[in-house]
UniProtKB/TrEMBL annotation:
GO CC list: endoplasmic reticulum membrane
EC number of this enzyme: 1.14.14.1
Co-factor requirement: heme
InterPro entries per record: Cyt_P450 (IPR001128), Cyt_P450_E_grp-I (IPR002401), Cyt_P450_sf (IPR036396), Cytochrome_P450_fam2 (IPR050182)
UniProt-listed Gene3D superfamilies: Cytochrome P450 (1.10.630.10)
Assigned keywords, A-Z: Endoplasmic reticulum, Iron, Membrane, Metal-binding, Microsome, Monooxygenase, Oxidoreductase
Gene Ontology biological process: epoxygenase P450 pathway; xenobiotic metabolic process
Protein name: unspecific monooxygenase
Amino acid sequence: NIICSIIFGDRFDYEDKNFLTLIDLIEENNKLQTSIQAQLYNFFPNVMDYLPGPHQRLIKNVEKVDKFTTNIVMEHQKTLDPTCPRDFIDAFLNKMEQEKGNEDSKFTIETLSRTTLDLFLAGTGTTSITLRFAVLILHKYPEIVG
């Protein structure tokens, strides 16, 4: 939720079905990434696109998470106040507006969607795994809590 407030400018209720679905998709993808098919997909994406396996589920999950972030970006576009950025997305949209005439600009909606997705996935996955291992270590070695 801290990552969400930085990127999306809003926290989600812990009972929010969309948020819980998103967390479930990320958890499932963390497990699917270790499959041999997912690893082969990184090397042979054109071939693996036609083969069944857990990598297909991983791709569908990423598409769902991407749709979620794209919807938030589109909502931000509708409610943007350039004088008062709420979060990362608003700051990026403001920069896009500044770069409007520049054909070489990397500040595009596609880049914003991808960057938002990357920040969300990397921040959420890394943070939750780090916290999980910290709790396990503290549980195994209670004397270091002292």
